[in-house]
Amino acid sequence: MTRHRPPVRGHRRTGARAVATLLAAIVAAMWIAGTGPVGAAPFPEPAEFVNVAIDSVSPSTVTTSSPSTVTVTGTLSNVGDRPVRDLVMRLQRGDAVQSSTGLRSSLTRDTAQYEVTTPFRDVASELDPGQRRSFSLTVPLSAPAEPQSGGGTAGLGVDTPGVYPLLVNLNGTPDYGEAARLDDSRTLLSVLGLPPDRGRATTAAGAMAAGSTGAPGVGTDGSVAPTVSTPTQFTLLWPLAAPGQLAPGVPGGGDSDVRLVSDDLATSLKSGGRLDGLLTTLDDATSTADAPLTRSTCIAVDPDLLVTVQAMTTGYVVSRDPTDPRSATREGTGSAAARAWLERLRTMASRLCVVALPFGQVDIDTLAAAADPALTRTGLTSPAEIVDTILGVTSLRNLVVPTSGALDATAARLLTANRLDRALVASSSIRTATPSGTGQYRAADVGVATYDPSVTTALAAMGAAPSTPAITPTDQRFDLESESQDSRRVAATSALTYSAIAPTTGSAAARIGAPVDTPVVGRSEVVVPPAVWSASADDARAVLDTATLLLDTGLAAPRPLGTVAADLTDTSTTAELQTLPDTTVGLTTLDADTTGMITRATSMIFQIEASMVARNDVAMSPRAYVAPLVEDLIRAMRSAPVDDAADRRSMVATARARVAAVDRAVDRMRDSVSILDPGGKYTLASERSPLLLVVRNDLPLSIRVRLDTSAPPDLDVGDIGVIEIPPKGTRQIQLPTEARSSSSMTVTIALVTSSGVAMGSPIELSVHSNAYGKALFIITICAGVLLVLLAGRRLWHRFRGQPDPADFDRPEPDERERLMADSRYLHGGHAGAGADTLEHPFPRIRSAGDSDRPHDPERPGGRDD
After folding, report:
1. Which of 298, 679, 776, 861 has a CA positioned 20 to 30 A from the CA of residue 310?
2. Mean per-residue pLDDT for 664-689?
3. Total domain count for the chain?
4. Basic and acidic residues bias: where (predicted)?
């Protein structure tokens, strides 16, 4: 599985043979001819000249009916810049794995610890740069009686069942260099039983003739059968999950297209894709309802995947900018594949156990730190309902499968507070002084069933996109790309068999050929691959074939996940939750700042939801409208594999980008409800004239709002309380006012939901009032009183025949005024006079210097003045 090689004693061509000779003399190396390896190099070290890739190991699992030899085939590739000559190879074997951690750590050992070696064999005389060549090595499984003359043994020397690390060692001579070990490749060999062997049969017969009982488990033909008296209780989870694909920041409802961040999910669902392969292989292997594998297997499905696939079935688009829900799009290509895949899953779920994973593979520790009931409901308590609704089944309830494989005390309290009192965790995440034979414990009021994290790590290494789970310790981590996919597949299936060939009684181990051990998982083997499992169809088929083999041979007995969950109720063995040492579990939890961003966004979303109104004429509910945004925040808390600080920075950046998209969506929701600004000046006709406003709502749901006003002291604006604005509509509002002065004033009006969220942007109205307030009122009253008094006085004097004192200061009338007062024409009028006979309505009065003025015959005395 890993690269582990010494430095190559060779240097680049200098163009002069003398230089090459000098370098060869300085960099001396020892040629191995079966005497041992050339020195060791720190692990890992990439191939500099020739790369070794294992293509197959046959048999990958040895049984009593297997051939007596092991054949390893593979490919040699010259990845250097010079020819390599005299290529020789051999197989080496390490001691049988003695604990589950050795399933991974044995693959990182120095080559010297692979002590059983076979002789070197020539595989190529020369390999040029870029050239590839296949190889095949076949060796006996069991060791011969005597070592070979050339060094090593003719076979691998395997005499007892177990899981053995296997190494393919390549040596050669690079051009202008010395002989050296160039590369190696590693995997595991599972030996459930040994085929017939003449040497073992002779030894056993001799022992029995001497009165001994012979070797345990050895038959008369020299075969060694596995112990099946205490079969492991086998449970297999089959995960169906994918990273979140729905574009963030898109609320529910409406007639907008379903928007995905990429079309990767379509590729995975189509024939030959990852999810198609996982579904097809499981469907084929569990077609018989009462088969042991069918009873042992439970589909662990992410509800986020089901929500996305169901949305794809009616058509969707792919965003060209995943962070912008308004960016340009292209048509998705996976609708037909989504419909077919979902229908097949429904059919298969009807006959298999189904359990819901946390929504979006949310990290439960981050969820506990957020401490938001709405997020908890979406991430942990709602998934089972989503799975049941979409698949039409009744899934296993109240069993939590943390994506990281671990729980801390805070997360455990979160589970119990939400009546989730059962969980499935890695055995390394608990600490106990009394290991349980069933692998079940009571920790922090939560019943936990344990699984072997080393098996999970081996399964995660499968496929074209292998990963290392966060629960994997540092000494079990290495560059997975350094080994071929076939090599990693053999190592994974071998790890799967480990518990079955390490029989125990209760908590005491009685492993064949191995010292006593007390595994925390006991005799319960719950196999939990990573949630997003990159296994190909061939990988999945190999796992299912191995599980079937274990069940059919009696090394394992089916134990449904429902039984595991039910037994947790009565578990009494106590344990403590612990932080996994030397792992990256801590890196999967988001930092406090990012978690705070998520909780603030959640609070804003649900405050807006609280002000929305469900109506009979609108099919969508407020909860359905905001649910996609809350799910986006759950996806931001995804527990993804993190190897180092760089991975964590990338994870945090991805989470923050998704939260930022949700924040922008919330801002758009707030801008969708606003007051239409009338602009200009607003004149009040009277001191109590109302302000007329129009409020707009572009949301697909009714919403309750109120007006928050700010006005000067001389203008009182009334409170109209909470009003409801219809969806996709407007509403006119009369805002009562009372002005106490005549002036221009500025009134600020904001829109706030009934739950206190500011919507839209405040507007400022310039209001002019014609009211003069109290001063004008008092002046008017005083003037009216004065007028009444004066008129009353005049009337009083007139009734008494007395002149009014107000007339005493009037001047005496002149002659002209007397004439006008005495004029009969002015006082009597000439009603019958025609307009053509009268030039003036009354005679002109001649004044001094008016000699040309005509004589008025009507004037008394007939004289002119």
Report:
1. 298
2. 83
3. 5
4. 807-825, 837-865
| Domain end call among 560, 593, 626 | 593
pLDDT digits (tens, 9 = 90+) for 444-500: 899 999 999 999 999 999 999 999 999 999 888 888 988 999 999 999 999 999 988
Q: Are residues 324 and 264 located together in one domain of the fold?
A: yes
What are 598-602's contacts with CB under 8 Å, separation 24+? 598/370, 598/375, 598/633, 598/636, 598/637, 598/655, 598/659, 599/370, 599/371, 599/372, 599/375, 601/629, 601/633, 601/659, 601/662, 601/663, 601/666, 602/370, 602/372, 602/374, 602/375, 602/630, 602/633
Domain end among 652, 671, 690: 671
Beta strands in 497-566 (DSSP E): 504-505, 508-509, 524-527, 556-558
Tens of pLDDT, residues 21-30: 333 332 333 3
Quick one: 407 and 292 in the same domain? yes
Which contiguous run of DSSP H or E holds residue 25? helix 17-26
| Structure tokens, 32 | 């191995």
Q: How do residues 111-132 score in pLDDT, each as one tens digit?
A: 889 999 999 999 999 999 999 9
Q: What is the dihedral sign for C-alpha 12, 17, 22, 24? A: positive
CB atoms within 10 A of CB 849: 7
Give a yes or no: residue 214 inside a domain: no
- Examine residue 580 and state whether it is found in any structural domain, yes or no: yes
Instruction: Specify the range with the lowest mean pLDDT, choosing from 209-223, 240-254, 414-428, 832-846.
Output: 832-846
For residue 751, give the CATH number of its domain. Answer: 2.60.40.10
Q: Which of 21-25, 139-143, 443-447, 528-532 has the lowest mean pLDDT?
A: 21-25
Angle between helices 645-671 and 592-611 (to 10 degrees): 20
Return the percentage of the chain with pLDDT > 70, whole number: 82
Establish if 7 belongs to a structural domain. Answer: no
In a domain, 621, yes or no: yes
Which of 46-55, 477-486, 781-790, 838-847 bottoms out in mean pLDDT, i.e. has the lowest? 838-847
In this prediction the pTM is 0.80
The pLDDT-based confidence of 534 (bands split at 50, 70, 90) is very high
**CA dihedral over 146, 152, 155, 160, signed as positive or negative:** positive
In this predicted structure, the answer to whether residue 518 has a pLDDT above a threshold of 70 is no
Q: Do 718 and 764 sit in the same domain of this protein?
A: yes
User: What are the counts of helices (DSSP H) followed by strands (DSSP E) for the chain?
Assistant: 22, 35
Residues 647 and 681 in one domain: no
**Of 88, 123, 104, 131, nearest in space to 186 by CA:** 104
Q: Which helix (H) or strand (E) holds 203?
A: helix 198-209
Contact 483, 2 (CB under 8 A): yes
Q: Which phi and psi angles does 505 have, rounded to 5°? A: -120, 110
CA angle 14, 16, 22 (to 5 degrees): 85
Nearest Cα neighbor of 278 from 505, 529, 654 is: 529
